[in-house]
Design a protein that fits this description.
By secondary structure, this protein is of the alpha+beta class. About 20% of the residues lie in helices and about 40% in strands. The chain has an 18-stranded mixed β-sheet that branches. It is globular, with a radius of gyration of 18 Å. This is PhzF family phenazine biosynthesis protein.
Length: about 270
């Protein structure tokens, strides 16, 4: 069975920046084991698998090289970009995705593509010793939601220069660790906050740009800065930009994407 696949760089307008995701449109459902093997073959932080259910409605699943995950923003952005670019849906059409985190949607806007995602606020948490030791710092704040730890540190430079002990960080019982600080007004003067995200326990030491992490970051910085709209920069080596808007218990995540490769699975 052949299946079309593309690599799309998400949360960027420039190729080879942002976060690359593989997007595979399946003609019909395939076994979970096959999707996991395919994602391992692609060896990107996420591979998104789409199956058409009806006009503008798709089943969507996300896989890292090691396992299926419950929520992924950049691969959803990449999937929406792929469907519109390949002509599977008309530009003005809203896309609906049935996922493990419920019904998600995507629309084209002046900002590029806007995703409607659930808010995933954190609550204060006691940091495990492995978390503190692996980061090598004393946090200003530690919180946790159902997926990740969120750690606020003392400034943007700390976020940018952080070099975690990945084997030790992988021992923390969580999907990942998000490290964040308010932007300092220098190189990131146009942003409200910066972040980096680490997921060694699921095979991704550092994720270049993480949409789902901003489901926690957006409500956190909304409370801190008292702003309904936020501009964010994920300060990985590739870097990525996100625009965020709080809508009650939902987060509107906006960004752009660019396709860098098209191909097909032949088995």
């Amino acid at each position: 069975m052949t299946a079309a696949i593309s690599i799309v760089d998400a949360f960027t307008a420039e190729p080879f920046r942002g976060n690359p995701a593989a997007v595979c449109l399946l003609p019909q459902e395939r076994e979970t084991s096959w999707m996991q093997l395919a994602a391992s073959e692609m060896n990107l932080s996420e591979t998104a698998f789409l199956v058409k259910k009806a006009d503008g409605i798709y089943g969507l699943r996300w896989f890292t090289p090691l396992q299926e995950v419950d929520l992924c923003g950049h691969a959803t952005l990449a999937a929406a970009h792929y469907l519109w670019e390949q002509g599977h849906c008309v530009p003005e059409q809203q896309l609906l995705f049935h996922t493990r985190s419920g019904l998600l949607s995507a629309v084209r806007t002046a900002e590029g593509i806007t995703l409607d995602f659930p808010s995933e606020p954190v609550t204060p948490a006691v940091a495990p010793e492995e978390l503190i030791q692996s980061l090598g710092l004393i946090p200003r704040y530690v919180g946790r939601n159902r997926m990740d730890y969120l750690v606020e540190v003392d400034g943007e430079d700390t976020v940018r220069t952080l070099r975690p002990d990945m084997p030790l960080l992988a021992r923390v019982e969580t999907r990942g660790v998000i490290v964040t600080a308010r932007a300092d007004g220098g190189t990131s003067g146009s942003y409200d906050f910066v972040s980096r995200a680490f997921f060694p326990s699921i095979g991704i030491n550092e994720d270049p740009v993480t949409g789902s992490a901003h489901c926690a970051l957006a409500p956190y910085w909304h409370r801190r800065l008292r702003k309904e709209e936020l501009s964010a920069y994920q300060a990985s080596a590739r870097g990525g930009e996100l625009l965020l808007r709080i809508e009650g218990e939902r987060i509107q995540i906006s960004g752009t994407a660019v396709t860098v490769m098209n191909g097909q699975f032949i088995r």
